[in-house]
Every structure is written in structure tokens, then in C-alpha cells.
Design goal:
heterotrimer; A mainly alpha; B mainly alpha; C mainly alpha; B: mainly alpha; two-stranded antiparallel ribbon; 19 helices; 74% helix; globular; C: mainly alpha; 4 helices; 0% strand; flat
Chain lengths: 506, 513, 122
């Protein structure tokens, strides 16, 4: 059982897919119930994973590998393995995935057509995300990565608002380019290093005794190639994160897609970019991570300021949240650019924390939108009167996003900036300006929606229903839990990051 | 040895290795006679089933020939080796699919009046393709090529009352004739230089000719032959016929052209160039370095052709509103991908090509079966005829999605691994520019492949009435879907089968006799 | 070797040259030798005196072509039969069987033409 735990976890959403396949379309109630219940299976499994996680063990836990493909070359065959494993970096993200998925499944109750297809695709995306975080092989990582993109294309294109097809196409093409670049790097690494296993690649590329690192030996990989690979990976993941100027697909998607789709996209999917930056860029090419840290920091600052300034002038709440995501991902980049333990911890904290907060905020905005039919600040106002519960949670979420102490956003921003101030004080100081802007645009948004005079037609609107409260409570309590007791996250992270960070030698 | 004197030297050859060809020839003859003496009004579907049976039996004999040693008869005019067997199995399965699709096509549409001819001309085309796979003599190769071509010219024009069909058949004949002329012109140089049409003899003599100051003519004949063959595989610079012909041809014939005819083109390209040019070595006077001409010089041009095909095919496909034209441009791009292994010539060249062809066979045959079904139902070949297909026939839409994903090269389909293997060869060869173009054009292709998916799932159709799926189409789609997905999850058995059962080295062993 | 190869082309060139030179030379020579005295009758299409009637663009019956094609097929057949007959002794019985197959295929072609009413004029 223990051997197959990660495999079972990864493919557990397929159980729901299988069940749903046999339920007739004409029973939407049953379909929805099974859709939500099916997400509980991986949720429970990840909690078991968290509970049994070995906090002090270095390296991968529960790892397992099988031969999958052999590339025949003469009499020999080079294997590509199917391998899974989990460490302190991927474990929190696995938990994040299942939590957000369940919450998004609840949020998806508001879709109005083709529930069966939606939940089937939804569960396939969840499997893809779990697969991405539990893969320890680049090839498998790539395949699961594609598994998140294609179903999401359908989810964006079928359920959403007016211009949803264009949004889906844009999403597909941007991510297609990203994964194409990723594939070039992976195959090149495979040819140069002879394996696709992440751990083996890391050892071969970083061990000073490895022939890949000794000049004049056959198989030596010169710095220029490493630089090219690093840069290509950076671009591939910059599209995913997204880093300005590759962010336009996200704006369109936020505007047009169904809230449940955005919850998983912004809550989990874009974190794959940050995760991979640590897993691949930092682990495979530590020297270039160090040398190019200024570039990453500058990209981060651009993201923070660009996102925050544009968020300040958006009247559309969804667009504001999109730019806010861009801004917050900038903070994650700053943490990575610090190339020290605090910085990396801050980056991972930011991934988890932004995942929870972004999902929560978007969920709240979607509730508002459902009731009022708009998410434009100018058409809203005074909602605290008719729906105090929704307004209150929205306010809290925005405070968390602004980095209020006691909530997860504070910890992650604090760690990221502390990390960066130690090495690049000027850039960190410029980036910190963004925090002020963040507070400004969030306040403007919250004032515009919940306070002030209420419009007449909004007076009689109902507050949140019982089932709608569940995601709010769960997400908010996790945000506060991390804010108050950060050790839940930092303890498992500690050992893994201590393994990666010193190699960069910042 | 009195029997020898009585029966002559020819009887000494092991003619049994030719049994697949004999069976196809026999069945084609039988069908033509049956067709002549059958009642005019009688149902001709029985002919299709007899032909189908013949294909299965021929396939059995090909399988029996696989894994054996090389058998060569008639001074290498006909030979059985791994290369030939692999391609023959591909052709036979492709034609089997075409027959199943045709059953429904001819059954419903009254516009093909000569359905008897239709079936046995497919068989003669198949015979030509099989000869092309199984010969290493320029004359036999050309005879096979022409048998395939002439049969397909007629097949394209079988919708006699249909103006598009007439136009496309005419264009096909004219451009095909020019291509044959160019091919022959190139072959004539080779014959003039080496004095032989046998590929192994050519290989032996070509090097000395090359050094005697005829290097220009050797290159010239290579390019002439390549341009001629480019017609059959529909790559740049001889691709422009494909959209018009596919559009006018009956849909099953378009499927035939896009898979079987194209694969036959690859068979002849690989056979001719690998054997006759493979051992050609150039000698650099200044550095004293030796290098293979094919690897060092010619491969660059092939890579350029491949890249140009990918770019032109994929960008022009985006602008198409007719689904068959779109598939034609997609086919041009796919042929570009298929040239990459030949342009990079890694050790896995043959396995990569075969795997890709198998993936392409499943995806394209499945896609054309569904295209035929939908077009016939909607009476139009517009992309819009796919609107709302998901609500009318969900399984067909899901299957079509997988076929399109496979053509686009996305997991978990056979097409993904096909592209992955090919892509790997480009990187091994350090052709990063080629690899880059390959992936960039793949992303471009998402646009039009997913355009069809958009129609199927996201647009309302004119009707919501369930689409009736005939059994033969259902069977084609099912087999193609299972093949596409199975090879997409577990590519290894297919790859190992190709690697072990069809050893490429056999191709380089001359027959001797 | 290269020169030998090129010499072959020299012969081709000589023949090409001769082929162009002969008619051009003959006609030019004739022009100088003959008297030029055109009359209306001499300019007619048929100097024998038959008057051309109607347009020269008439459609021939398509059967002409099919007949011509059939003729060519069976005509070419004899080209294969002659060398086989000459070398019959050294080829043996197997070649006889092959030739029978060849003729049977041609007969099938004839049957096809017959059944498709190609042999009837109407």
C-alpha cells in the first residue's frame, strides 16, 4: 500500500470520472454530488500524506519507479521511467491542490449546463495537477502538465461568459508555446545527460565529479548550453506564472471563464510555474540561478508594480484580481531571486498563500456577480447591507491579500522581502513600493463594493447559502492557520529547501 | 536437375514470397470479372467484402514473411526484407480501413456509378504500393509508382457527375504526369552515370562516378528524383495539388491518398536514397576528412524541405473552411514532420518513421471516417458541419477529439510519441532550428485542430437529431481510437515490435543473384 | 571517364544540330531554286482541288480514341511475344506459364471492353 500511495493519490480522481461515466446526464443532482464527493477522496489521501510525512528525512519520500518506455539504440535500450516521489516542496502543493479542487468543485455548483462533462473534465485536471506535483521525472511531468491544459481548454470554452472561446484559444496557444519550449529543454537534457529522472539530472549536473562538469571530458556540458537551457525554462515557466509581458492570456481567462475554472487555474495551475522554477531551474542550474537572480528580481519588481498600478485603475473586479495575481506572483519571483532560505521559503509560502487567497477572493467575487449580475465597481456598492456575510469574508480575504499580519499573506511577503533585502536591498525597496499600491487598490475595491450607498435593486439580494459558506470557511481558516502558525508549512519545507538553497551559493 | 532444364531458370526462384502480391492481383482480377458478369442492379457490396477478405489473407502472408531472412528474386527486382514487410502491413491495414469506410460511402451516395471499378482500382493501387515497398530496382520501383498513380488518378475522378471531382482528377493527372517525368529524368541520369538500374550496383558505382567529376550530375539527379517523389508524399515544392485533389476526391479516396499513397512515397524515398546514396562518401581535399554525402550535404536540403512543408502546411491550414482542404494542408505538414528522421538520419530513423506512420494511419483514417459521416449527413464539407456534433453523436466527437489531438501531437495519443521520437532525433542531430520549427508549427497547428474541436463542443448545430453511425464506420473509428490511445499510453510494444521484427539492416544486404 | 561521358552528349548535340539544319537547309535551298508564282488555286488547303466545307474544328467520335487505344494495347502485346518466342528454348516452361498469364490478363481486358460495349459502334 505504502509503495503505491502516490500512484493511488494521483489517479484517485479517476474513480470519480469512472462513476460519473455511468450516471445519466438527466440526473444533475446526483452528478453534482458525485463530482464533489469524488474530490474528497484525494483530499483525504493528501491529509493522510501530510500526517504521515517525515519531517526530517532528506530527499524524496514514498518514491517508486517503473520502466515505461525504452528507446532502443542498437542492442541497448535507454529507459524513460515512470517515477513518483514527494518531498517538502511538493507535499504542501499537493495538499493545496486537493483543497482548492474540492472548494472549486463546490463553487462549480453554479454552472447551468452540462454538469456531467464539467465534473469529468474537472477531475481529469485534478489528476493532472496531482501528477505534476508527484512526478519526479521530467517526461511524466510534461505529460501531466499537458493533462491540465487540454481539459481546461474545454472548461474555459464551454462554460463561461460571452467571449469564452477566444479566451480558451488564447489560453491554449500561450500554454502550448510554454510547453513546447519546455519539451525542447527536456529532450535536450535527455540527450545531454542521458536520463529524464529529476534527481539523476540534478546530481549529474551539479556534482563536481560528474563528467558533465569537468571540462575536456566527453559529455561535458559547457556553460553556454546551460545558460540557454536555463533561459528557455525561465521563459516557459514565465508564461505559466505569468510574468509580464506573457500575462495577457490570464487577463482574458479571468474575464471570461467560470469562477470554478479560475479557482483552480489561479489557485493551483499557475503555481506550477513557481514550483518548476525551484525544482528545475534552481536545482539543475544553481550557478545560473545565482548569476541571473538580478534578472529574476527585476522581472519580479516589474510584475509587482505593473500589476499593482493596473489593478488600481480597473473598474472590473475580475480584471483587478487578475492584475493582483500578476502582482503577487511578482512577490514570489522576488523570493526566488533572493536565492537564500528565507527567500525560497517566502516564495513557497506565497504560492500556497496566494493559491488560497486568490481562490477565496475570486469565489467571493463570483458570488457577488451571481447575485447582482455584475462585477463592476461602479455598478456595485453598499453590499454590506444586503449580504453582510459575503461582504465580510470578501473584506477579510482582501486584507489577507494585502498582507495583514496574522494571515498567510503577511508571512509570505515578509519572508520574501526579508530574503531579498539581505542581498539586493535596492530592488527590494522598489518592490516594497508595490505593497503600498496593493493596499490602495484592495481598499478601493472593497470600498466600492461593500460600503457606500447601495443600489436599490441590490437591496433585496440574499446572503450566502449554507453550501456556499463551506469554501469560505475552509479557505479562510487555512489562510489564518498559516498566518498564525506558519510551522505547518515551514517545517516540512525546511529540510527540502536546505537541500537546494546552499548549492546556489548566494 | 532435370526439372530446371524443363521449367527454365526462372522457376528456381522462391516465388512463394510474392504470395501477398499474387493474392491482391488475383482478387483484383476476380473482382473485375465478377463485376462484369453481375447483374447491373445487383448490390456491389459483396465485391467490397471479397476484396476485404483478400486483404486479410494477403496480410496473413506478409506476417508470415516477417522476421525471416532476406529473400530476393529476379536480381533484386523483388525482395522481401524488414523494410518491405513493415510498409506492406501499413498499406494493407490502410486499404482495409478505406474499404470499410467506402462501404458506407458508396452505399449511400449514388454519385459513384462504377462501384465495381472503384474497389478493384483500390486493389491495383495497393499492388503498386506493395511493389514500391518491395523492390530495389529503379524500373520495378517506377512501374509500382505508376501503377499506384494511374489507379489513383481514376479513383479521384470516380464521381463522374461531380464537377469538383473532374477538376481534381484532371489536376492530379497533369501534375502527376509532370512529377513522373521529373522522376524519370532524374533516374535517367543515374542510369547514364552508373549503367545500372539496380540500386546496389548503383551504390557501388556511384562513388567512383562522383570522383570522376560528375558530382554535379549526381546532386542534380538526386534533386530531380526527390522533387518527383515529393509529389507522392506531398511536401514542398510539390504539394499544391493536395488541397484541390482531396477536396474533389471521394472522401475514402482522400483518406487513401493521405495515408497509403503518402506512405508508399516514403517507402520509395527511403529505399532509393538510403541504398543508392547511403554509401556515397565525399572527400575533402583540404582537410582530408571523409564524410557521407547524404548525412553532410543532402540532409540539409531535406531538412529545409521538411521545415518549409511544416510551415506552409500548418499556416495555410489555418485559413481553410473546407475540412478536406484543411486535412490536405495538415497532411502536407505531417509529411514535413515525417521527413525529419530522414533529414537527421539517427540510428532510429526507420523506427521513428514507422511509428509516426502508424500513429498517422490510425488518426487520419479515424478522422476521415468521421469526416465522411458528418459531411454526408450535413450535405456539406464545410467546417461548420461539425457544429454540435458532441450533442448528436458524443462518442464520435470524443473519438474525433483524440484523432485531432494525435495529429496535433498532444498526449496521451500515439501522435505525441510519434512527434516525441522524431523530435528527439532532431535534437540528437543538433538541428535545433529544425526542432524549434517543428514545435512552433505544432503550436500553430493547435489553432486549426482545436478549431474543429470548438465546432464540435462549443457551437450549436443546425440539428440536434442523433447521428446514426453505420457499423463499418463504427468499427473503423473504434479500431483507430483503440490504436491511437493504446500506442499513446504504451508506445513501447509498438516501438519494440518495429525494432525487432523489421530490422532495417536487412535493407542493405544485396540479394546477390 | 568524364570526357567519355561528355562525348556521348557531343553525339546528341551533333544529331540535334543536323536535325535542325536539314529541314531548314532543304527549304532554304528550295526557295532559291524554285520559281515563285502563287495563284489562288495553289493556296487552297488541298491542292488536288477538293473544296474544304465547314469549320476544321469538328468533334471526332470518342470511340475513335478507344478503338485506337485498344489497338495499341494488342499491338504492343506482340512486342512481348516475339522475343519470348525467339528465346523460348532457353526460357523453359515457366516462361510459357507466364506468357499464358500475360495473355489471360489481356483477354480479361478484351472482355472488359466487350462488356462495356466498346466494340459496338453505336
Amino acid at each position: 500500500m505504502a509503495n503505491y500511495f502516490l500512484i493511488i493519490l494521483t489517479f484517485s480522481p479517476l474513480l470519480g470520472v469512472l462513476l460519473l461515466a455511468f450516471i445519466p446526464k438527466s440526473l444533475p443532482g446526483t452528478v453534482k454530488a458525485i463530482g464533489i464527493l469524488a474530490t474528497l477522496v484525494p483530499l483525504v489521501l493528501t491529509f493522510m500524506l501530510y500526517a504521515n510525512f517525515n519531517l526530517v528525512a532528506e530527499g524524496m519520500q514514498l518514491s517508486q519507479q517503473w520502466n515505461w518506455i525504452r528507446i532502443p539504440i542498437g542492442e541497448q535500450a535507454i529507459p524513460i521511467t515512470f517515477e513518483v516521489g514527494v518531498d517538502g516542496l511538493s507535499m504542501p502543493l499537493l495538499v493545496l491542490t486537493t483543497v482548492i479542487s474540492t472548494m472549486a468543485a463546490v463553487a462549480a455548483l453554479s454552472i447551468n449546463k452540462r454538469w456531467k462533462e464539467f465534473y469529468i473534465l474537472f477531475l481529469i485536471v485534478e489528476m493532472g495537477m496531482l501528477g505534476v506535483f508527484s512526478s519526479t521525472n521530467l517526461f511524466q511531468f510534461f505529460i501531466f502538465f499537458e493533462f491540465t491544459i487540454i481539459p481546461l481548454f474545454f472548461m474555459m470554452g464551454i462554460w463561461g461568459y460571452m467571449d469564452r472561446e477566444r479566451a480558451a484559444m488564447k489560453f491554449l496557444l500561450y500554454n502550448g508555446v510554454g510547453s513546447a519550449i519546455m519539451l525542447i529543454v527536456f529532450v535536450t537534457l535527455f540527450i545531454l545527460v542521458g536520463t529524464l529522472s529529476m534527481e539523476e539530472i540534478r546530481q549529474l549536473l551539479t556534482d563536481p565529479m560528474s563528467p558533465r562538469n569537468v571540462p575536456n571530458l566527453p559529455g561535458y556540458i559547457p556553460d553556454s548550453i546551460r545558460f540557454g537551457l536555463f533561459l528557455a525554462l525561465l521563459i516557459a515557466f514565465a508564461i505559466k506564472i505569468p510574468v509580464v509581458p506573457f500575462h495577457t492570456w490570464m487577463l482574458k481567462a479571468y474575464q471570461e471563464a467560470h469562477p470554478a475554472v479560475i479557482m483552480i487555474s489561479s489557485g493551483v495551475l499557475i503555481k506550477i510555474g513557481g514550483y518548476a522554477l525551484i525544482r528545475m531551474n534552481a536545482a539543475f542550474f544553481p550557478e545560473w540561478m545565482n548569476q541571473l537572480s538580478t534578472l529574476i528580481a527585476v522581472l519580479g519588481v516589474i510584475n509587482i508594480l505593473y500589476g499593482a498600478v493596473l489593478a488600481l485603475v480597473q473598474d472590473e473586479l475580475k480584471q483587478m484580481l487578475a492584475y493582483s495575481s500578476v502582482s503577487h506572483m511578482g512577490i514570489m519571483l522576488l523570493g526566488l531571486a533572493a536565492t537564500n532560505l528565507q527567500g525560497f521559503q517566502g516564495a513557497v509560502f506565497q504560492m500556497v498563500s496566494h493559491g488560497l487567497i486568490a481562490a477565496l477572493m475570486f469565489y467571493m467575487v463570483s458570488l457577488v456577480h451571481e447575485r447582482t449580475g455584475t462585477s463592476n465597481i461602479r455598478e456595485l456598492g453598499g453590499l454590506a447591507k444586503s449580504m453582510p456575510m459575503i461582504s465580510g469574508v470578501l473584506l477579510t480575504a482582501m486584507m489577507a491579500s494585502a498582507g495583514l499580519p496574522g494571515m498567510s499573506g503577511f508571512i509570505s511577503e515578509f519572508l520574501s522581502f526579508v530574503g531579498l533585502f539581505g542581498v539586493k536591498p535596492v530592488i527590494a525597496a522598489v518592490g516594497a513600493l508595490g505593497l503600498i499600491l496593493t493596499a490602495a487598490y484592495l481598499l478601493r475595491a472593497i470600498l466600492g463594493t461593500t460600503f457606500g450607498p447601495i443600489q436599490q435593486k441590490h437591496e433585496s439580494l440574499s446572503d450566502a447559502q449554507a453550501i456556499e459558506v463551506v469554501p469560505m470557511v475552509v479557505l479562510l481558516s487555512l489562510v489564518i492557520l498559516i498566518g498564525v502558525y506558519p510551522a505547518v508549512l515551514s517545517e516540512p519545507l525546511q529540510t527540502t529547501l536546505q537541500n537546494i538553497v546552499p548549492r546556489i551559493g548566494g | 536437375m532435370s526439372s530446371v532444364s524443363k521449367w527454365g531458370n526462372l522457376a528456381q526462384y522462391d516465388w512463394s514470397v510474392m504470395s501477398p502480391e499474387f493474392i491482391i492481383l488475383g482478387v483484383a482480377t476476380l473482382l473485375s470479372l465478377l463485376d462484369l458478369f453481375m447483374n447491373k442492379k445487383a448490390d456491389r457490396r459483396i465485391l467490397a467484402w471479397i476484396g476485404f477478405l483478400g486483404i486479410i489473407v494477403a496480410g496473413y502472408f506478409v506476417v508470415r514473411n516477417t522476421g525471416q531472412n532476406v529473400v530476393s528474386i529476379l536480381n533484386d527486382m523483388y525482395r522481401v526484407d524488414g523494410f518491405a514487410n513493415a510498409f506492406k502491413l501499413l498499406f494493407l491495414s490502410g486499404v482495409a480501413f478505406v474499404f470499410l469506410i467506402s462501404l458506407t460511402y458508396i452505399d449511400e451516395s449514388k454519385n459513384i456509378r462504377y462501384s465495381g471499378e472503384y474497389y478493384y482500382l483500390i486493389l491495383t493501387a495497393l499492388l503498386g504500393a506493395m511493389l514500391m515497398a518491395s523492390s530495389s530496382d529503379l524500373i520495378t520501383l517506377f512501374v509500382g509508382l505508376e501503377l499506384l498513380s494511374i489507379s489513383s488518378y481514376i479513383l479521384v475522378g470516380t464521381r463522374k457527375q461531380h464537377i469538383h471531382s473532374n477538376e481534381s482528377a484532371f489536376k492530379y493527372v497533369i501534375s502527376g504526369g509532370i512529377a513522373s517525368a521529373i522522376t524519370l529524368y532524374g533516374m535517367s541520369f543515374i542510369y547514364g552515370l552508373t549503367g545500372s538500374t539496380n540500386l546496389y550496383v548503383i551504390a557501388e558505382r556511384l562513388s567512383s562516378v562522383f570522383y570522376d567529376g560528375f558530382d554535379f550530375l549526381v546532386y542534380f539527379s538526386f534533386f530531380l528524383m526527390f522533387v518527383g517523389f515529393a509529389f507522392k508524399i506531398s511536401v514542398v515544392p510539390y504539394h499544391m495539388w493536395a488541397p484541390d485533389v482531396y477536396q474533389g476526391a471521394p472522401t475514402p479516396i482522400a483518406a487513401f491518398l493521405s495515408v497509403v499513397s503518402k506512405a508508399a512515397g516514403f517507402a520509395i524515398v527511403l529505399r532509393v536514397f538510403l541504398i543508392s546514396f547511403g554509401s556515397l562518401v565525399s572527400f575533402d581535399m583540404e582537410t582530408g576528412q571523409q564524410g557521407s554525402v547524404l548525412v553532410n550535404t543532402l540532409s540539409v536540403y531535406i531538412a529545409i524541405v521538411a521545415a518549409a512543408s511544416m510551415i506552409i502546411g500548418n499556416t495555410l491550414a489555418m485559413r481553410q473552411v473546407n475540412i478536406k482542404r484543411m486535412m490536405a494542408y495538415s497532411g502536407i505538414a505531417q509529411a514535413g514532420y515525417l521527413l525529419v528522421p530522414f533529414a537527421t538520419l539517427t540510428v532510429l530513423m526507420f523506427e521513428q518513421t514507422m511509428f509516426y506512420l502508424v500513429a498517422y494511419l490510425f488518426a487520419n483514417m479515424g478522422a476521415f471516417a468521421i469526416i465522411m459521416l458528418v459531411n454526408r449527413d450535413q450535405k456539406t464539407e464545410d467546417l461548420k458541419s461539425f457544429a454540435g456534433l458532441y450533442h448528436r453523436a458524443p462518442w464520435m466527437a470524443i473519438a474525433m477529439t483524440f484523432f485531432l489531438l494525435s495529429l496535433a501531437g498532444l498526449p496521451i495519443t500515439a501522435g505525441f510519441f510519434g512527434k516525441f521520437y522524431i523530435f528527439m532525433s532532431a535534437i540528437v542531430h543538433s538541428s535545433y532550428w529544425l526542432a524549434g520549427i517543428m514545435l512552433a508549427t505544432s503550436v500553430v497547428s493547435y489553432y486549426y485542430y482545436f478549431g474543429v474541436i470548438r465546432q464540435m463542443y462549443m457551437r450549436p448545430g443546425k440539428t440536434e437529431a442523433p447521428l446514426k453511425v453505420p457499423a463499418s464506420i463504427g468499427l473503423v473509428v473504434l479500431i483507430a481510437l483503440v490504436g491511437t490511445v493504446a500506442a499513446g499510453i504504451m508506445p513501447d510494444p509498438v516501438m519494440q515490435y518495429i525494432h525487432h521484427k523489421f530490422p532495417l539492416q536487412q535493407m542493405f544486404q544485396p540479394g546477390g543473384q | 571517364m568524364a570526357t567519355v561521358y561528355m562525348n556521348n552528349y557531343l553525339i546528341v548535340a551533333i544529331f540535334l544540330f543536323l536535325g535542325i539544319l536539314l529541314p531548314v537547309g532543304a527549304l532554304t535551298l528550295a526557295r532559291f531554286l524554285r520559281p515563285s508564282n502563287p495563284t489562288e488555286e495553289k493556296r487552297k488547303t488541298y491542292e488536288s482541288g477538293v473544296e474544304p466545307v465547314g469549320s476544321s474544328w469538328v468533334q471526332f467520335n470518342v470511340k475513335y480514341y478507344i478503338f485506337a487505344l485498344l489497338f495499341v494495347v494488342f499491338d504492343v502485346e506482340t512486342v512481348f511475344l516475339y522475343p519470348w518466342a525467339v528465346a523460348y528454348d532457353s526460357l523453359g516452361l515457366f516462361a510459357l506459364v507466364e506468357m499464358v498469364i500475360f495473355i489471360v490478363l489481356l483477354v480479361i481486358g478484351l472482355i472488359y471492353a466487350w462488356k462495356k460495349k466498346v466494340l459496338e459502334w453505336n
